[in-house]
Amino acid sequence: MSILETKQLHKTFNGVPVVNGVSLSIESGKITSLIGPNGSGKSTTINLITGMIPFDGGAVVIEKGTILSRIQPNQIASYGITRTFQNVEVFEQMTALDNILLVLTERNVFSSLFEKHTQYHLDIAERVMKRLDIWEKRNDMVENLSYGQRKLLEIARVIAMGERTDGETKVLFFDEPYAGLFPEMVKLVTTILKELRDEGKAIILVEHNMDLIRELSDYVYVLDAGKHLKEGSVDNVLSDQQVIEAYLGN
Amino acid sequence: MDYIIHLFILIGIFSILGLSLNLVIGYTGLLSATHAGFYGIGAYAVAILMKNTGMNFFIALLLSIVITVLSALVIGVVLSKFKDDIYALGSFGFAIITYGLMLNLQGVTRGPLGIPGIGRPELFDISFSTNLTFLILTLVLAVLVWWMTRYITRSSYGRVLQAIRENEKTIQFFGYTTYWYKLSIFMISAGMAAIAGALFATYITFIDPSSFTLIESIFMIAMIILGGLADNRGAIIGVIIMILLPEFLRFVGFPTEVAAQMRQVIYGLMLVVMMLYRPQGIYGKFKF
Questions:
Q1: What is the pLDDT of residues B33-51, one digit of tens each?
Q2: B interface mutation test: which of A101, A112, A139, A161 has the most B CBs within 10 A?
Q3: Cβ(B69)–Cβ(B194) under 8 Å?
């Protein structure tokens, strides 16, 4: 059973359709990959589902059949959705630890002013940051971290979202999590994605590296020019003539 | 000696303004120019309540905080929808509107004539009529504000404020409705400015709209940018420098009319030099 579906999502920028009737079905405990050439609408699709950009048509269906025709960014956490960003969006002039604590603490103005779980949150942050090997950097300002470390910090933040007390994370979007990572870090991220899948999370991965796609994907959607080109298991999709043409041209 | 005490009282009052404005500008990254407006609303509220009803200063102070916070609510409801330069522009507008109201609501504020003869605070048998006792009152309230800003900025709430400053779009994806945070800190900061206004009104014992102009807001912004944004020590240091500098200039021996001009020149020069060589201010933890 799918935990998140999109039905005929549409988005037009200045008259040009960038996402044109994309219907996805995402399942728990699986890694679903979105692939396609540059500009095929992968990131835009994620941005539509997570409320970063409003969509023009179609709907997103979340658990228990709730149909959403409009999504605000601040709602997605309550639907159990979280994400990383293609152009690493971290809080630069704050410490790495604060970046993680942010997603653990109370969301409400009054409760956050009188927060009582400081030590509890610190313990979670320590566990999560150690898992990504960035605990030593906890007191560094994020603006002084390397690109790779910031990528890892973003992934740590997404994992921490699943550890907060007032909500569970069920669907995780990773928008090019591997871009610019050292081989060692690539291994680490791969392990973590597999662990998350085994914990029963639904993972949506946007990635260009086909080796990683082959290794990780349980199901693949191919987009081309905003359209849904092909879907299926990795082997079927990647050997498909249409897909090869979309990537390499005729 | 009285002169020194006078300077310390001014430093105390402006420290409250600097600390509270730092919450909005330094921590939340919202360039607000409305602060002098709230400072003025607080001052007027206390002055009118004390003069017209003979109310005790401390009750008037509490009421003026309530009134100012409510005004901040009205303004903040609109302003908190914006960010960055639009926020700054909007706050300019509100600063001019509050000044306009002080000037033109003559039935309440007596307009440009101002309100003279405001009494000094009294508490039971203690009167704060001498400058020394008033200084003690000012310092007690300034320390209270310091403690509150310290508590706020170290709480989880304060962390969210900084995240809003760094990247308001992104923090929303993690379940925060930034509007409420921006609105609430704006109100808290205004409430603190009201304390400064109340002290100012009862210290000088005369107020008129000219003390609460947009330029006064800019002066406060300059103080905290100089001292350092997002740092309480920075705010205080900026205040001390900006209050004492013109006093030193007084002793350099410029003729009065030149001295006034020199002050503006030095402020401008200082801000330009800071922007070029130390954008985070003397002690600051944040640069725009």
A1: 999 999 999 999 999 999 8
A2: A112
A3: yes
